[in-house]
Amino acid sequence: MPAKTPVGQEMHLRIVIDDSLASVRWWSQHGSIEQRPPQSIFPRATTFELVVRAIRTDQGTIDFRGDVVQGPRGGRFVYLNSGAGGATSERPWSRRAKITLQSITDAHVAALVADPTRVLEAHFHGVARDGGPACASVKLLGEGWKVATPHTSRTSP
To answer: Is 136 among the domain residues?
Structure first.
């Protein structure tokens, strides 16, 4: 089987959890068990800055690699795990939100290869229908993934 060829350099992803519950803490899952805290937490948003590598498969499709990438080829995603944030929590939440990478397009990758200072940004609502933290496959807000510059994030207070 021929080797896969890189599409570009590392891609920086920014995932923002909008309207997260104050009593819930979030971590990104790296590999099968390691968890890391977010880069910023504000009253209404929690932000993760993650790195993935896009590659071109032998079939010509984009695939993703990296320690935050989960799932099989053709169904890659990132897990953001949540849990109760202390003794004041009313419920012992322990959940995972699944953020798809499959909606990242060739155009997104090309934009980041052309300007590596840019990031791909996606937002999702941090509260599930049952009032707990978002979990399972979450719906990305707006148009989904968008190319952004580091200072365009909506995470500032």
So the answer is: yes
Q: Is the pLDDT of residue 42 over 70?
A: yes
Task: Give per-residue pLDDT as tens, 70-102.
Answer: 999 999 999 999 985 544 445 556 899 999 999
Domain that holds residue 94: 5-140
Per the domain annotation, does 54 fall within a domain? Answer: yes
Residue 156 domain-assigned?
A: no
- pTM, full prediction: 0.84
In-domain check, residue 146? no
Distance of CA 26 to the CA centre of its chain: 12
pLDDT at 61 over 90: no
Neighbours of 31 (CB within 10 A): 10
Number of domains, the chain? 1
> Distance (Å, rounded) from C-alpha 63 to C-alpha 75?
9
Residue 39 Cα distances to 42, 133, 153, angstroms: 10, 19, 12
What's the length of the chain?
A: 157
